[in-house]
Amino acid sequence: MFLSFFILAASLVAHADSDGDAWLQKIDRTARVIDAHIVMDLTVTDARGREKPRTIEIWQKGDEKRLVRMVDPPRLRGIGLLANTGDTLHLYLPQYPPARRVVGSKRSDAFMGTDFAIEDLSRMTFGDDYTATIAEQVGRETHLVLTSKTDATEPALHLWVDSSAVVRKIEHIDSNGMASRRLILDDVRTIQGTPVPHYMKVTDLARNRATEARIRGIKIGINVDDSLFSVSQLERQ
Q1: What is the tens place of the pLDDT at every residue in 111-136?
Q2: CA quadruple 177, 179, 183, 187: dihedral positive or negative?
Q3: With 60 as the cut, is the pLDDT of residue 7 above it?
Q4: What is the per-residue pLDDT across 73-115, written as a single tens digit (0 to 9) for each?
Q5: CA distance linking residue 215 with residue 196, whole number of Å
Q6: Alpha-carbon distances of 17 from 14, 23, 129, 130, 162, rounded to whole Å
Q7: Parallel, antiparallel, or unpaired: how do β-strands 88-92 and 80-84 relate?
Q8: Structural contact between residues 36 and 152, judged by C-beta atoms closer than 8 angstroms
């Protein structure tokens, strides 16, 4: 559906595989951080315009370890998500211990009443899981089409990346080839040499609802202890 909106650039498509994968490597290098701590405010807006606030904290080490924890509202405090070395992913719900592995299609489930999928919050790289082809050049942005390296039946993922290798838009495609979820990234600020989008909006196109996220505070280059990224720590409130 997307290609009908643009005129394809034949010179880009000719070397799509190698150039697309090179883009993924650039994206991963650009987004990589050594250590980071982020506080992010979320607002969930349903189809009737009602808003629900959320606050999450994120700790990250390199591109292999990330801990996401809900801190507000109080009824959701302690809910956590742990992405660790080897692509292992655990979800912890304080009301239903212990932490459980998240596998397969469950990674596309919404995270605790928001429109962010679990995979949105846990993904740290693209190159490990996808290969890419270049679809077209749209102004200063490059449109990439990603396909899974391990699951040929998984619908393609569409990325728009700017000239600095910062992802500015992601679209998830359903089994019918239609866009089901759209993630916009904006207000890019450079923190300790790393460009970081400070505003994100994810729209569930099927349910006509959206979640906006704004970074309230961020620190990069801090010393985050490896012990934080363990299931036992995930289960601590």
Answers
A1: 888 999 888 888 899 999 999 999 99
A2: positive
A3: no
A4: 999 999 999 998 777 899 999 999 999 999 877 888 888 889 9
A5: 10
A6: 8, 10, 15, 11, 18
A7: antiparallel
A8: no
Read out DSSP for 23-56? HHHHHHHHH--SEEEEEEEEEEE-TT--EEEEEE
Measured between alpha carbons, how far apart are the two ends of the chain, in Å?
Answer: 45
Q: What's the CA gap between 104 and 111, in Å, rounded?
A: 15
Quote the pTM value: 0.85
Retrieve residue 63's tokens: 């591109």
Residues 37, 58: contact at Cβ < 8 Å?
yes
Q: Which pair of tokens denotes residue 28?
A: 């991963």
Domains and CATH numbers, the chain: 9-234 (2.50.20.10)
Please identify which residue in the block is written with the tokens 């961020």.
218
Could you read off the pLDDT of 58-68 as tens digits, one per residue?
A: 999 988 899 99
**What is the residue-averaged pLDDT of the chain?**
88
Torsion of CA 39, 59, 167, 48, to 10 degrees: -40
Task: Categorize the per-residue pLDDT at 236 as very low, low, confident or very high, splitting at 50, 70 and 90.
Answer: confident
Instruction: Give the angle 155-59-68 at the CA atoms, nearest 5°.
Output: 50
Cβ neighbours for 230, distance < 8 A, ≥ 6 positions apart:
82
d(CA 200, CA 217) in angstroms, rounded, equals: 14
Whole-angstrom distance, CA of residue 70 vs CA of residue 226: 20
E strand or H helix that includes residue 22: helix 16-31
